[in-house]
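Two entries, shown back to back:
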Amino acid sequence: MKWLFYVFYVWCNIGIVEKLKTFGISNNTANQNTILQAINENKEKESEEHKLSLNETQKSNFNTNNQPSSFDNNTRESSNLENTKITSRKNMIVVQDSRKFSKEVHIDSARRSKNLSLSESVTKVSNQGSITNRFFSTKRDSNLGLAQNQSEERKRNSDEKKETIIETQVISPEDSNPQQPKIPKKTWPMKPGYWIKTFANELTEYEKGEILQYRKIYYVGSKAKKIKGAPWHDYNFGYDDDKGDYLVVIGDHMAYRYEIVESLGKGSFGHVLKWWDHKNKEYIGLKIIRNQQKLIYQANVEIKILTHLRDNDIDDNYNIVRIMNSLEFRSHIWVIFELLSINLYDFLKLNDFEGVSMGLIRRFAIQILYALNYLKSENIVHWDLKPENIVLKNKYKSGLKIIDFGSSTFINERVYTYIQSRFYRAPEIMFGIPYGYPIDMWSFGWVLAELYSGYPLFPGENEKEQIGYILETWGVPEVDLLEQGARSHLFF
């Protein structure tokens, strides 16, 4: 039985060495020394335990027989000889294994970390009892360590996935790319200093100085093909043509608030445009006065009259276009109105100049008379009533308003002696006779006739031809009337 125990002892020592070799515990000399030291210590403990067991057996035999037998002595001597032989063989095996361990050097970083945990487990196991218990405990601890490492790696990977999911939900694609610089958001309105600091590349050199005149910025027309104004350009830094008309660029701004949408018309005074107000979020009509001193003075008079009419018609009952604001921008007067629909000339054009019904003419006439009566009550003469200056509020309804007070004056401030469009011009204007409110009624009559027929009643190509139409219909005026006219001699 003792012989079998020693064979099992050698087999266990060889087995644990082979196991340690398979787990890769042979990469560095430090781990090898610790393993050898653990095995030697365990060997010494086991030899001591064996001696103690032998002594106990001897004592027991001595107590029973009072003297040890010769057979027991021989067996003890033979066991000692066998023990020395086995230990020598075991040491040789350990030395050979250690030489083999020193040759293995190609191990990755992951197995090195496992070697440390295994070496620690071996040193702990060496303090325990038998070799078999140490083997199974080492295997169990290694398996537990591997399982624990795998669970920690899985937990770490899951945490990293959660972090990436949270980041993709919070961070935008622009911010997630570290190579792209963060683009500041445009929150309106802005202060001019911040705009120049952040979005200076969207302004021309002229605008970088101009923008500082405004407290708040609502729109700059970044996508418009702007005119690059400069002091060395002719005609208002390059913003006007040779006639003084403002060069309109669709999509550009006015006063860093209004956006040009489309052109509604052009006349001797300048442009009428459709604009979008970025502050109040509404469409408006805007008239740009030509950059000429005479027209600038006339525009100021128009602003004065429209402001007076608006302030005295709070409920908007008298069919006069309402002025909203006026300002000066780039040497031009800009007059801002409510946005209306098409004028009566375009209305006839849509109807192929076939005229309109009497019922619709009646509704139009009543509204125009309301407006003319209101103008007379405020001592104002329009001076230029015609289909182009009568505008529908809505394309599909009969409501209308009178516009274009550029030639209008208060009755006691008459400045111009030559006014009204030719087809609707009163005889006293052509003869040079003093005029007043009746000239608006003359124009009103010709407008109604044109609405019925679809064409002007007296389409004279010049003043002489126009006078000819009038004389052909009503005959020659009285001599006293012609003598009052300063221009009568041009026709008679």
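entry 2 starts here
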Amino acid sequence: MRILLAALATLVTLSSTAYAGDIAVYAGDFSFTRDSKHETAFGGVEYRFNNPGWKGVWSGIRPTIGYMSDLDTVSATYAGIYWDFPLTKGAKSGFVITPGFAPSYYTHTHDGKNLHFGLEFRSTLEATYKFEDGQRLGAQVAHLSNANIGNKNPGTETVEVVYTHPLF
């Protein structure tokens, strides 16, 4: 956790205002569909870069780094991409659909959900409302899975409320 916070602080410090990005925080339900034994509340934080200036179809891609944990039995550190698809083109506010993908390093304690491999892939789908000042509020669902790289692939799903705030 300290390493991630240091990395976030470094990125914020080194980022120009043109590429600064957003901080996202989320909280929700971990392992809510498959395994009630491991269902628990959890939360996370992300740094979402602004698009580095790509045009056309690539203009919605945003690199991200993040950390999630239930503060007791499971945690994951990840880096990947989100791809924003505004439903109202050219408007400062409106609904945004955002799929995402991120490889992650997943750890668990004896009581936590064992996903049977340290490398897990986090696939997400987010629906948010973007306000005129750049803040967003919405919901996200995610799936964590090792894509059958490990000896077992139980996977898990999460659902969360997400809030993002632009840094500059």
